[in-house]
Each structure stands twice: as structure tokens, then as C-alpha cells.
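Section 4.2 – Deliverable D4.2 (structural model, holo form)

The reporting period included a commitment to supply a predicted holo structure for the target in complex with beta-D-glucopyranose. Inputs used:
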Amino acid sequence: MSTEPPPEFPPGFRWGVATSAYQIEGGATAAGRGTSIWDTFARTPGRIADGSTGEVACDHWHRHREDVALLAGLGVSAYRFSVAWPRVQPGGTGPANAAGLDFYDRLVDDLAAAGVDPVATLYHWDLPQPLEDAGGWLARDTAARFAEYADLVAARLGDRVRLWITLNEPFVQLSLGYGTGEHAPGRALLFDAFPVAHHQLLGHGLAVAALRARSAAPVALTNNYSPVRVAGDGGADRAAADAYDALHNRLFTDPLLGLGYPRLPMAVEPGTVRDGDLAVIAAPIDVLGVNYYNPTGVRAPEAGSPLPFELVELPGHPRTASGWPVAPDGLRELLTGLRARYGERLPPIQVTENGCAYDDVPDADGRVHDPQRIAYLDGHLRALRAALDDGVAVTGYFAWSLLDNWEWAEGFTRRFGLVHVDFATGARTPKSSYSWFRGVVTRPTPAGE
Ligand code: BGC
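Output (C-alpha cells):
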């Protein structure tokens, strides 16, 4: 880690941490919550590394006041959480379940009282199971259902949420949820999953209209981005990297920013993209949410592969407990690359997730030292500062995550938090990265700025 103090950021820069509903809340049947695709998936033997579910998770449902106090103690100006669709519409359609919305209503008020801006994500992968039974994101109707749900949440929270994020990482929902089946709902359709991309985008566009109709603003969409590094020096490797880049980095963002779909390595069934859809999808947004974890190595596939690329490990990088390469420069590359690709079309960016898992263990005194996480965050903040100096408009940064939590198919085996959670008792212990991050976010603005 650098011994220099972390770089300075402009006055008014938004500092936050992020979480998502299914990963922290628990309270799986509380206050009329319905079943989501992740409840179903987690209960299916063999799907989750440690056989766990998010039924209790971090028990945020009962401990939310303690968690707001942790946010206040951290000194962040914003908190990104997600609203669980099955709490608001247990069956995925129909009127709002007021008791479910009450929870978020209290949370938003508690955050405001603590001086923390609420940033709400409407969809962080927890589709109501009845909608999946009706086709999930493969069904066009799910886009309309999503807008209806967005309207219900905006009607209740629209006056207090400071940034609305429609979808979290539609690429990951598409690729792992419906492409390979490693995530809920566990469908392995490979490229036949394309309608999932289009219907998420359409749902986003319709939700933007619903939010605007309620004066709920500003509005964003968050995606996951990964700079592609070509492994190999052949033209076939380059072509494979381009195909992967189109899927991971452009499939959602090109249409979102009014460029239509890029050339994709898959056939699109006639009738999926209808007249007028692209205009709905390209409705102006106020912020682009960028999640960054690592770059991806790509080379040409073996003969007979069903995919036009092969993903390979990138040599020469330290790795997190997830096995992901640590490459802070990738964040600068990605941000300047977005600026170069989209130019004036690009709205201001907020980095809505960035972080790492390590096997953090309390010491004999009960303290949790996580120098590797501090080094990771420090490196990425330097890269972010460099991107600002390159002229990219970035107005916020959220570390993933406030708490160690339920890491999807990895269950409780990956710790991403600035706060350690004892998963048996729910006890929270701020790690050394929590104190370090507080120092960054509460640093006085330099004189004269
Ligand atoms: C997701 C989070 C997840 C994190 C680490 C992101 O893809 O939005 O829910 O926990 O990465 O894997």
C-alpha cells in the first residue's frame, strides 16, 4: 500500500457504502414478504457453496437501527441499499403491501436523521417467484410489472430518496442467472437468453418514466463493467475479446445511451425488439452507476465451443479470496474508456460498487485487521482520482460493502464488509478498513476549493 495519504476529492463528492436486500436483510417471511427467485434457488441442493440461504443473512431486518448507527459512525454522506420487490408486491403484481414498504420508509427516515442520503436500488436480482413462474425476464410482461412496482415504491419514498437506481448489474442477471445458471433463477440458456437483456432494459425505461411521473429523481442504472484484456496475440483472440466486450460492456450501455444494440455475437429472435422500444430504453438518465471489481482476460475459444470466447486468468496480479485479480488501474482504464466511447452522451458517473473479499478473522482481542482491503481501496481511489484528473465526470464512490454478507452462490464464504459480521450471532465488529475509510470520507476539503 502507498504510504501517501489518500488523494483529495472535490468538495461535494458523494462518499458511500452499498448493500443489497437479499444479502443482508433476512426476515424472509416477515411482514408479508413473498418468495423471490433467490429463496427458491438457495433452497435447491447443490446451488450454494456452503448450503446456506439468505433467510436470516445479517438480520438487518431486526438490526437496521444498529446498521444506520454504523453508517453514521463511518461518516459517509450516502448509503446505497436495495428494495426487495417481494416485500412490496409479494406476488409480483397488484397493490403494495404497506407493511413491506413501512420498513423502507423507516429506514429512509432514520438515514435522513443520521445525515446520510438514501440511495435506493429497485432491483438487485430478487425477482418475485410468481413472476419467474410466468417466464421471468424472458417474458416481456415482466418489464411492465417492474414499472408498476417502481411506481409503488416512488409513491411512498419519492420525496426522500436522493438517487434512484433502477437495475443493478443487468449483465450479471443475464449471464449468470439465465445464461449459465450459476445464479438464480438457474437457467442455462447461453445466447438464447437475449430476451432477458432486452426486457430488463425495457423495464428500466418504463421504470424511468414511472419515477419521473412521481418526480422521483435523479435516476440511474448501475451496470458491472470489466476492461477486457486480450490473452494471446492472434486476430482470433482480438475478435474473441471484442465479442466479450460487446456483451459485458456494451450490450446494456449502448442502447441506454441512445446508440441501439452493438453488433452482438448472438441471434436476436424477430419480434423481441419492437418498434419504439429503443426510444423507451434511451430515456435520459441523470447518472450512470458503474460497478468495478476486476478486468477480464479473454482469448479465442477451443474448436467446438458453444461460445465465441474463452475467459482466462490474468497473470501477474495479486488475488482476492474470490480469486479475482486486483487491478486498480482497470478502474481508470474503464472510466476513461467510457468517456472515450460515449463522449457527450455519458452522464456523470457514480462508482456504485467497488470492493474485495478476504478471509478476515477476529484476533485474540476481538479486533479485525484487514490491511489487504485497505490496500485495495487505497489503490482504487488513486485510480479514480487519476480518472477525474483525466477529465471524467465522477461524482461519487460507494465501497462494497458495509457488512460481510450473504455472497450469492458463495453463501457465507466471502467477506466483503468494512464491518465484520459473526454469522452465528449477527454481532458486528468494524474492521480496520472501517476506520481507514472514515478517515478518507471525513477528510476536510482543502482550503481554497
Ligand atoms: C453485486 C453484489 C455482489 C458483489 C461481489 C456485485 O456483482 O452487485 O451483489 O455481492 O458484486 O460479488
